[in-house]
Amino acid sequence: MVLGTTRWSLERKVRDSAPDPASIPSGCPEGRLFVPSALRTMVLNWGHSSRLACHPGLTRTGFLIAQRFWWPSMSSDIRVFVSACPVCASVKTPRTPLPACSTLYLCRPDLGTTLLWTSSLDCQTQGKKTVIIYIIDRFSKLAHAIPLQKLPSAKELAALVSQHLFRLHGLPINIISDRGPQFIASFWKEFCNLLGIKVSLSSGFHPQTNGQVERYNQDLETSLRAMCCKNPKTWSSQLPWVEYSHNSLVNSTGYSPFQAAYGFQHPLFPRQEHLASSSGPAAFLTRCRHTWSRFRQELLRNQEWLT
């Protein structure tokens, strides 16, 4: 409800204030709305500071705004707006680049899943949640973040994975995790063995093994700080929006995790519904395979650049 109201009211305001078509500057792409100068700050704020965005960088802010809006100086205006954002300036710090991960030879989503824990959160939070479990598809980088009150036992972990992973994405071939007590417990190993899932443990002091989870951990915590900087105790209520932002906005591959997993970018506005539709199951499967192939090429290109 909140999502629809926000985006549709903004779209309506821009459409209602649109000038005569003859006065719109040339170069406006088809399917986008020209934004008059009086509404550009509102659009910039929506594309960067709203719950849909969660204070992303230049590329992701531009991607979100370009879904529906355009004006000639949009790129430079986005650069100035993001650079001047006081929230980003207060919560974002320079990060040390993580070592490159080993090459991924995956060809489609859900062939592997990575799990990681973090407990470095404020204990005085809503519901006293202090732990987040990350579930990340190694291929698409599609992620789920689940807040918990405490580290679960191996049996509780099995129930959580069944609810948040198997129910939505099926059974993975391999699960990589850290060496927490839940993951080395005999119950967890036997649970995965009965389901035909290979269990792999990351190496201590070796960030290459779980580098993508470490990166997501950094991004998530930065976004959480930005979204609840005025009231840190509300971080768990902001977590779904941070997860949505991560999954729906593009990354260094030029694809969003959602698009890499499902073969299309989910429509944000009603006018984009035709971009997600297909003529039938065969056409949908062809589109998915084509997307996965191109996305894999981008993954390999990025890894070559890092190494």
Automatic annotation (TrEMBL):
GO MF annotations, alphabetized: nucleic acid binding
PANTHER family: INTEGRASE CATALYTIC DOMAIN-CONTAINING PROTEIN, PROTEIN CBG26694
Superkingdom, natural source: Eukaryota
Domain Integrase catalytic: from-to ranges: 95-265
PROSITE patterns per UniProt: INTEGRASE
Signal peptide positions on this chain: none
InterPro entries recorded: Integrase_cat-core (IPR001584), Integrase_H2C2 (IPR041588), Retrovirus_Pol_polyprotein (IPR050951), RNaseH-like_sf (IPR012337), RNaseH_sf (IPR036397)
Protein name (database record): Gypsy retrotransposon integrase-like protein 1
Gene3D superfamilies registered for this protein in UniProt: 1.10.340.70, Ribonuclease H-like superfamily/Ribonuclease H
One BP annotation, GO: DNA integration
Organism of provenance: Oryzias latipes (Japanese rice fish)
